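Researcher: Here's a chain I'd like modeled. Treat it as a single chain, no partners, no ligands.
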Amino acid sequence: VSFQDARGTGSFPNSSAGIVGAPLDGKTIFKPTYVSPLVFNQAFSGNISFDYRWGIDEGGPILQQLGLNALLTFNSGHPFTRGKGKGNTAGALEGDSRFRQPIEPLNASTTPGTFQVDLRLDKTFSLFENLNANIYIWVINLFDITNVESVFLRTGTADDDGFLSNFDLGGQLAEQNGPDYVALYNALNIDYYQAYQNAGGITQGFGSALIYGPPRQIRFGVRLEY
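Model: Modeled as a single isolated chain. Structure tokens:
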């Protein structure tokens, strides 16, 4: 388990690049002095690993060289700043911070914590004198927990970006165009948001484009060892 309290004047090397490169009066050199929690700060995080396996000639033909590994990971979430504004594109507030205004002190809010259990079962077979095959089944997110890793900055939630619910932003469009428009907007900007961010390499300033952690996945594989 790790405990952390990371604070500073900027979470990234270019955090103040805009005002440093273009000072408000055209000449004053900006020196950041405001200290706040950094976006990658996690009050606590940790992992617990359990691994048990039988060696060669242990447990009989079924159990020999069989192994079981369980990995539990958890964290307390990371800071973010609630904001308002239209954003630099219709709907989106995330991205360029010049197009939004904070409604609270910098990084005063925190995303939900996450919890995940991964399980791996494997068995090794000797094929030749110096060649083994390790056959495994690996279950990621065993309990299929929905982990929220990032949120929309207007609402602080992962399933509403606050655009349609604000009449001055998208609410009027929703009223004019009806439920088909709302369904299309949500499909593109909410349901497909994570894939869009990943495809474009957009990280929202968090270092990750992920809104949700991985769903349950079951993988089968063979690894050759020589």
